[in-house]
Design a protein that fits this description.
Protein name: Exodeoxyribonuclease 7 small subunit
Structural class: mainly alpha
Low-confidence stretches: none
EC number: 3.1.11.6
Radius of gyration: 18 Å
Organism: Vogesella fluminis
Number of helices: 2
Pfam families: Exonuc_VII_S (PF02609)
Oligomer: single chain
Helix content: 55-70%
Mean pLDDT: 82
Subunit structure: Heterooligomer composed of large and small subunits.
Length: 77
């Protein structure tokens, strides 16, 4: 289940891959070497997702300090 060490395509695809890895590992049918490789890949995907979320959070902080106003959805029609 180990993949090459290229950068993930997107946050969403990384999250889906991570969910697949977790599901496969939780099944308990994976040989030890495959489980270790999957664990390593999962850690890399998790780090990628955390970095993408941190980047998005930083962008929101920048926008909040500028002209961005809170979204008021209470007046939806």
């Amino acid at each position: 289940m180990a993949k090459s060490a290229k950068a993930p395509a997107s946050f969403e695809s990384s999250l889906a891959q991570l969910e697949d890895i977790i599901q496969a590992m939780e099944s308990g049918d994976m040989p030890l070497d495959a489980a270790l490789a999957s664990y390593k890949q999962g850690i890399e995907l998790m780090k990628f997702c955390q970095a993408r979320l941190a980047d998005a959070e930083q962008q929101l902080r920048v926008l909040e300090n500028g002209e961005l106003k809170p979204l008021d959805i209470s007046h939806e029609q």
